[in-house]
Automatic annotation (TrEMBL):
It comes from the Bacteria. This is Uncharacterized conserved protein YgbK, DUF1537 family. The keyword Nucleotide-binding applies. Residues 3-219 form the Four-carbon acid sugar kinase N-terminal domain. Residues 247-401 form the Four-carbon acid sugar kinase nucleotide binding domain. Belongs to the four-carbon acid sugar kinase family. Pfam families: NBD_C, SBD_N. Keywords: ATP-binding, Carbohydrate metabolism, Kinase, Nucleotide-binding, Transferase. InterPro entries: 4-carb_acid_sugar_kinase_N, 4-carb_acid_sugar_kinase_N_sf, NBD_C, NBD_C_sf.
Length: 426
């Protein structure tokens, strides 16, 4: 089975696809789906549509599908487990092309579940979380209402039915598909719930596609016809261990990410710089731009691992995230060749730095913890291909950034560079 994953941001594409890489399938994430010619068992395309108007996001999603879809390939539309972005409009645009939409955003490994068609985060209704309030204010977090508003007819599959007799469940889904329903919303609270759904729908001989986060994707990847298949994983040309420092870029302002940064500084002894948003808003015209660029260079020249974060001020607006991330990447770009490993938290931050330094695709290699993916650039226009870890901002345990830093540290020679002894000066 070949899989095409279409995601609306880079970290989402990676955390959804990493389950397939973990079972040995050659898995590539592309940042340029309309021009990428990757030939892999799993292709995950980042359409970068989360901040677009819904109609434009739907148009770009369909264009990616038409550019990348091949016969015999199954479609997985990756959506955010906390329902951010234009996911409903994108699903509605894909549905006439791909069949019944199986909608299951739960990701139990990260505390996201679905009950009664409503998302819960660690048992807390999504609407009450800071993640939802930051960008959605008074909007309800209702999966069915979002799909209906996008023009789709819906049905729900509750836990009792999902956990019942599988033959009866299969007949039930077939009946729903047969009566013209366009989207089936599936409750799930455990990984076993998602595995049941994956096993049943993967074997059904009817047009359908999956809509979910990394949770359902991991269970599809674990199915016997995938996990028992023999694939050859080719890591991009063997690379020597790097002595260079690790750069951690953090664009997310979530409370989860804040705790992860504190743990990294506490346990890893990593240096930190917090860039004022005003500097990033004005870019090179700001009076302190060159000063901040020099400070970043001095840290990396000193072989110091660096945590570089976007600060927050009273003028901050979540909608400016992409702009601030882009300018952060521009600030870093002159020093990128000094970096031996990169951790990028937040899809906008990850995409900004990779596109700025000329990296258009990644080969996924392993999962550090749920939703935290390690990769190598397949091609780099600068020729520099450090190990790269991506992570969604609000994802992961408090230990996630530290674990990612450890992973990069363990795969590199962390000794300082050898100084050349000059005769007469020692």
């Amino acid at each position: 089975m070949r899989i095409l994953i279409i995601a609306d941001d880079l970290s989402g594409a990676a955390d959804c696809a990493i389950g397939f890489a973990s079972v040995g399938m050659q898995t590539v994430v592309t940042l340029d789906p309309l021009n990428d010619e990757a030939d892999a068992q799993v292709i995950a395309a980042d359409t970068d549509t989360r901040r677009l108007p819904p109609a434009r996001a739907a148009e770009r999603t369909v264009a990616a599908f038409k550019a990348l879809h091949k016969p015999g390939q199954r479609l997985y539309k990756k959506i955010d487990s906390t329902l951010r972005g234009n996911w409903a409009a994108e699903v509605a645009a894909l549905q006439p092309l791909a069949g019944l939409a199986i909608v299951a955003p739960a990701f139990p490994a990260t505390g996201r579940t679905l009950r009664g068609g409503r998302v819960f985060v660690n048992g807390q209704p999504l609407e009450t979380t800071d993640t939802w309030k930051l960008e959605n204010a008074d909007r309800p977090a209702d999966v069915e209402a979002m799909l209906i508003a996008a023009g789709l007819s819906t049905a729900k599959l509750d836990l009792d039915t999902l956990r019942g007799n599988e033959k009866a469940l299969e007949r039930h889904i077939a009946e729903i598909a047969g009566n013209g329903t366009q989207a089936l919303i599936v409750d799930a609270q455990t990984e076993d719930d998602l595995l049941t759904l994956a096993r049943l729908t993967a074997s059904m001989d009817r047009p359908l596609f999956w809509i979910g986060s990394g949770g359902l994707a991991r269970e599809i990847a674990s199915l016997p016809d995938l996990s028992e298949a023999q694939f050859t994983v080719v890591e991009p040309a063997a690379l020597e261990k790097s002595q260079a420092p690790i750069l951690i870029l953090v664009g997310s302002l979530s409370g989860v990410c804040e705790r992860q940064c504190e743990r990294l500084k506490e346990r890893g002894g990593v240096s930190e710089l917090v860039i004022p948003p005003e500097v990033l808003r004005q870019g090179s015209t700001h009076g302190d731009w060159s000063l901040w660029q020099s400070r970043i260079g001095e840290q990396l020249d000193g072989w110091s691992d660096l945590l570089l974060r976007i600060g927050r001020d009273e003028a901050f607006d979540p909608q400016e995230g992409a702009q601030l991330s882009t300018m952060l990447a521009v600030l870093v770009e002159p020093h990128f060749a000094k970096v031996g490993g990169l951790i990028a938290t937040g899809g906008e931050t990850a995409r900004a730095i990779l596109t700025t330094v000329g990296i258009d695709s990644l080969q996924l290699l392993t999962e550090i913890e749920a939703g935290v993916a390690f990769a190598r650039p397949t091609v780099s226009r600068q020729g520099h291909r450090p190990g790269i870890v991506t992570k969604a901002g609000a994802f992961g345990t408090d230990n996630a950034l530290y674990a990612a830093w450890q992973h990069l540290s363990d795969s590199a020679d962390r000794s300082p560079p050898q100084r050349t002894r000059i005769q007469g000066l020692e």
